């Protein structure tokens, strides 16, 4: 227990010693009182003395350690004392001299100097404050002089809000403050002047900008690849993948010249847009952004109207159209760049409004000027230029569907131009043709013709050279020109974003117009031409027959180039078969007409002696020549279809029979004798002999002779004077003279009766002649009775 109390006392004394060592001397009293209040102060004193001895030992150790340094410091201090004494002496001397010299200076002068000193100091301070203001103002003027208007505006704002408030009480500052609005207006005016220069510059250079843009679009296929790749993989508006896309394009073999302008080189590479940006920033800073936007848009609308006004002679050359398109493209390239590089100067609604106006005016101008075009090559070049124009603007995001719709209208005009051109081509071919079968002397020429026209004839191939094709040269020429027309139609359909079915339908419709309008009219004109002979007509029939057979090859040709099968729904059929059939039928009718005209020409040479007493020994010369002509003509008909030749021959014989009958009964022949009638019978027998000879193969039996049956029965009735049989059997189906009309018989009988009366005045006194005359009168009376009963 005693040991525990001793330890507690020792710990308490140790705490008190630490407190004495660390506590301020003024506060040590309470601590010492606590020692004396206790009973162990003697022991505490022992510990205190022990602690003092420990500190003395530590001080001694420290002094021993720093003794040399202390000695050195004392040495230095002694040296300084000497120097301090010298300095004191110098100060004392200086003070004495100053006091001595100051006796000469009055107090007023000293005050004046002191005032000047304060003024100079104040002046220096104020100049130090004003100089930055003046420097900033000088910098402002320098910037305005060098046309750095936007930095000048920034300097002006800094001057106004930072520097001028510091020196606002100076008069020059008030002048500057009053001048600031003028400076702002000056900056606005100058920047606006720069903007006007910029607008004038881009108006003059729009065609160059557009030309560059259209050249760089160049290949529509490369553009389609680029848009497809970028849209599918990255979205429409993600331009961050440009370089990746460009690298991919290069790996596909697409070069920079094939990539649209806005993907490869920006419009800023051709135009300096800094005046617009500066002016926009300046007006924005000055709080007049809306004014600037309205002015810019108004001026650009005016320029748009000027750009969209086509020159009056634009339709004369392709360069006129190209310059017009270049200006429009250049205008919208600039606007698109402004849209994407400024915030709100132009917006999408404004661009769309301008584009709608431009689209309507452009389409109207193209409709007007393209209507003057008569050259298919110019129309085709114009179409390609419009496609390039549309693709370029589509690359900048403008809708161009109406342009492609308008191209379909131009396509119809192009088709009309082609039809007019090929109408002239067909006319030249038909006019220059010799309408003779094509002769070939060797295999090379034969294969050349076969290569131009799809013709195959086994019998002709077996024949030795030289030999002839059945058709003339216009057949392969017309066939190849139809193919050339189809190619020309196909060229216009390229790049119009049409389906194969639409292209096929367009080609077929245009080809049908070519066949039914142009070629058909040309053939009809040749057929109806006065100087077209029978030989030419025959050859035309042969030619159209072969062209009709070739229509299926034209169908195959169109199918091969459009890849649309003719059996596809809504596929138009070629009307070539109908065209060539109509032409052939017209040629056939013309052959029949020409033959009849030739027969009429020969009949005009007939010179009968209607009062001849006795007939001649042979047929009339004119009729012999006519029969010879018919024989030579029908010999040419060997290549014609059988029915055509038979119909022509039957038509000629019927016309000859009818014409001979009319010749016999015409009113100018008032009288005729039996001898004249017998001579006429010799001519008819010559015709019948021609019919029996079979001038055209294919007639059965005496079919061709039936053409003369009416005339034969009439002549037999009068020459044989078989009136009793005629009158007795009249009206019976088995009547020998079934085809003799009573009226015709009466007319002819009247002519013979008049002859008997006038030429045989004395013969009436002979009994036979009197009896014959009575018989004629009786027959005539009975014929009139038959005619009257028939009419009743």
TrEMBL record:
User: What single Pfam family name could you report for this chain, choosing any that match?
Assistant: Sec15_C
Gene Ontology CC annotation, any one: plasma membrane
Keyword presence, Transport: yes
Name the coiled-coil region(s).
45-104
Q: Which GO terms describe its biological process?
A: Golgi to plasma membrane transport; intracellular protein transport; vesicle tethering involved in exocytosis
Q: Which family does it belong to?
A: Belongs to the SEC15 family.
Identify the PANTHER family for this entry. Answer: EXOCYST COMPLEX COMPONENT 6B, SEC15
Function noted in UniProt: Component of the exocyst complex involved in the docking of exocytic vesicles with fusion sites on the plasma membrane.
Its recorded name reads Exocyst complex component
Per the UniProt entry, what species is this protein from, by scientific name? Pelusios castaneus
């Amino acid at each position: 227990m005693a040991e525990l109390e001793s330890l507690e006392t020792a710990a308490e004394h140790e705490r008190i010693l630490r407190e004495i060592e660390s506590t301020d001397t003024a506060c040590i009293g309470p601590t010492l009182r606590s020692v004396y209040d206790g009973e162990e102060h003697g022991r505490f004193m022992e510990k205190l003395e022990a602690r003092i001895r420990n500190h003395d030992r530590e001080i001694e150790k420290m002094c021993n350690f720093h003794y040399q340094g202390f000695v050195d410091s004392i040495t230095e201090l002694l040296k300084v004392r000497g120097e301090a004494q010298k300095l004191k002496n110098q100060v004392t001397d200086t003070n004495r001299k100053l006091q001595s010299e100051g006796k000469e200076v009055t107090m007023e002068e000293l005050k004046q100097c002191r005032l000047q000193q304060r003024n100079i100091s104040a002046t220096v301070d104020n100049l130090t404050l004003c100089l930055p203001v003046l420097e900033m103002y000088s910098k402002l003027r320098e910037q305005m002089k060098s046309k750095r208007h936007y930095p000048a505006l920034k300097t002006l704002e800094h001057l106004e809000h930072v520097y001028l408030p510091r020196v606002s009480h100076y008069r020059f500052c008030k002048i500057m403050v009053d001048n600031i609005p003028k400076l702002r207006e000056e900056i606005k005016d100058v920047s606006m002047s720069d903007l006007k220069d910029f607008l004038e510059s881009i108006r003059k250079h729009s065609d160059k900008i557009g030309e560059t843009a259209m050249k760089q679009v160049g290949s529509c296929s490369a553009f389609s690849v680029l848009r497809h790749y970028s849209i599918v993989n990255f979205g429409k508006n993600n331009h961050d993948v440009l370089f990746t896309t460009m690298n991919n394009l290069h790996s596909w073999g697409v070069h920079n010249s094939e990539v649209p302008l806005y993907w490869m080189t920006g419009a800023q590479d051709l135009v300096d847009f800094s005046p617009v940006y500066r002016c926009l920033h300046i007006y924005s800073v000055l709080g007049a952004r809306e004014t600037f936007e309205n002015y810019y848009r108004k001026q650009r609308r005016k320029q748009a109207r000027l750009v969209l006004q086509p020159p009056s002679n634009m339709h004369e050359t392709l360069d006129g159209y190209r310059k017009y398109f270049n200006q429009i493209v250049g205008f919208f390239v600039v606007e698109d760049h402004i849209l994407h590089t400024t915030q709100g100067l132009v917006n999408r609604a404004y661009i769309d409004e301008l584009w709608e106006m431009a689209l309507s005016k452009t389409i109207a101008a193209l409709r007007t000027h393209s209507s003057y075009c008569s050259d298919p090559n110019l129309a085709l070049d114009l179409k390609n230029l419009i496609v390039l124009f549309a693709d370029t603007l589509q690359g900048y995001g403008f809708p161009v569907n109406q342009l492609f719709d308008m191209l379909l209208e131009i396509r119809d005009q192009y088709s009309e131009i082609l039809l007019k051109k090929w109408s002239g081509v067909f006319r030249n071919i038909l006019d220059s043709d010799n309408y003779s079968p094509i002769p070939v002397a060797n295999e090379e020429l034969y294969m050349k013709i076969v290569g131009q026209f799809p013709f195959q004839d086994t019998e002709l191939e077996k024949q030795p050279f030289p030999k002839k094709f059945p058709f003339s040269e216009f057949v392969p020429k017309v066939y190849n020109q139809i193919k050339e027309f189809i190619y020309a139609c196909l060229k216009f359909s390229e790049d119009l974003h049409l389906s194969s079915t639409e292209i096929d339908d367009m080609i077929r419709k245009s080809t049908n117009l070519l066949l039914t309008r142009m070629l058909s009219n040309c053939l009809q004109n040749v057929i109806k031409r006065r100087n077209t002979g029978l030989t030419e007509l025959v050859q035309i029939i042969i030619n159209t027959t072969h062209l009709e057979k070739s229509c299926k090859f034209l169908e195959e040709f169109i199918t091969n180039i459009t890849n649309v099968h003719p059996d596809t729904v809504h596929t138009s059929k070629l009307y070539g078969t109908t065209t060539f059939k109509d032409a052939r039928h017209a040629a056939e009718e013309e052959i029949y007409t020409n033959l009849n005209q030739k027969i009429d020409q020969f009949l005009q040479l007939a010179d009968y002696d209607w009062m001849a007493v006795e007939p001649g020994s042979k047929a009339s010369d004119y009729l012999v020549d006519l029969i010879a002509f018919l024989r030579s003509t029908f010999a040419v008909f060997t290549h014609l279809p059988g029915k055509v030749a038979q119909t022509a021959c039957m038509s000629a014989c019927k016309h000859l029979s009818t014409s001979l009958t009319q010749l016999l009964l015409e009113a100018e022949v008032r009288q005729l004798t039996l001898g004249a009638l017998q001579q006429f019978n010799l001519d008819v027998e010559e015709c019948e002999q021609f019919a029996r000879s079979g001038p055209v193969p294919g007639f059965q039996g005496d079919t061709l002779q039936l053409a003369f049956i009416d005339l034969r029965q009439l002549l037999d009735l009068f020459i044989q004077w078989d009136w009793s049989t005629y009158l007795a059997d009249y009206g019976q189906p088995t009547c020998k003279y079934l085809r003799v009309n009573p009226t015709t018989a009466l007319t002819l009988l009247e002519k013979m009766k008049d002859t008997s009366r006038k030429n045989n005045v004395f013969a009436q006194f002979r009994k036979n002649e009197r009896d014959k005359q009575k018989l004629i009168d009786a027959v005539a009376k009975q014929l009139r009775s038959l005619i009257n009963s028939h009419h009743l």
